[in-house]
Write a structure and sequence with these properties.
Number of domains: 1
Strand order of the largest sheet: 5-4-3-6-7-8-9
CATH class: Alpha Beta
Number of helices: 6
Helix content: 25-40%
Oligomer: single chain
Structural class: alpha/beta
Radius of gyration: 16 Å
Number of strands: 9
CATH topology: Rossmann fold
CATH superfamily: Vaccinia Virus protein VP39
Largest sheet: 7 strands, mixed
CATH architecture: 3-Layer(aba) Sandwich
């Protein structure tokens, strides 16, 4: 049975057109969103909702971000193909797949063992070659640093210093920050000094909280 049908592709094209109408204009992001079958990152029973602009439930009490959020965060990265990206919060793997489809070299870390096991299997079956790790997102992946870009897909109470240290000078971090009320931040690390950053705010948002330590 074909898993990505003409119907799904039509829904996906319509979704991407709506995102373009809302101001997403990075062609690489839009092309990636057209390619990645979001419905295959959800339970089959949610198939009919996959291309609506809604966050939807996945395993372990987590969510898959709504397409407009994925598009917006991906665009804020300002990434070019072959850049090395650290993603914190693999989740369902949908955002991971979008980054891969953008031609980026993706390292992604997830703290929930059950979710991690499901997602690495899914990404492999769908042909996305991200480097996936089970670990504490606050710690990042120092052994693979530095990164050109860091994308955090969960809400942190403050900007994690460890992730700033793993970002190259001139690199960009996109992260939702705040307790309860979160703001989407675009951070440019301007030198090796982690205090030497330029921060821009891009509005309120709501993500699941960023938590420390592994969850087996």
């Amino acid at each position: 049975m074909e898993l990505d049908t003409f119907k799904h592709k039509r829904w996906r094209t319509e979704m991407v057109q709506k995102l373009a109408d809302k101001g997403i204009d990075d062609r690489n992001v839009l092309d990636a969103l057209v390619c990645v079958p979001r419905h295959l990152f959800l339970e089959t029973m949610l198939d009919y909702m996959a291309y609506e602009d809604k966050a939807l439930p996945i395993s372990c009490g987590q969510t898959i971000s709504q397409p407009s959020t994925v598009a917006f965060q991906s665009q804020l990265l300002g990434a070019s193909p072959r850049m090395k990206v650290l993603e914190v919060g693999t989740g369902s793997g949908y955002q991971t797949a979008v980054l891969c489809a953008m031609g980026l070299t993706v390292y992604t870390v997830e703290r929930q063992k059950e979710l991690y096991d499901e997602t690495i299997k899914r990404l492999s079956e769908l042909g996305y070659k991200a480097k996936c790790f089970l670990g504490d997102g606050y710690a990042g992946l120092p052994e693979f640093a530095p990164f050109d870009r860091v994308l955090v897909t969960c809400g942190a109470p403050q900007i994690p210093e460890a992730l700033l240290r793993q970002l190259k000078p001139g690199g960009v971090m996109v992260i939702p920050v705040g307790n309860g009320r979160q703001e989407m931040l675009h951070i440019v690390k301007q030198s090796e000094d982690i205090r030497d950053i330029k921060v821009q705010k891009f509005g309120d948002c709501k993500f699941v909280p960023m938590l420390e330590k592994l969850n087996y």
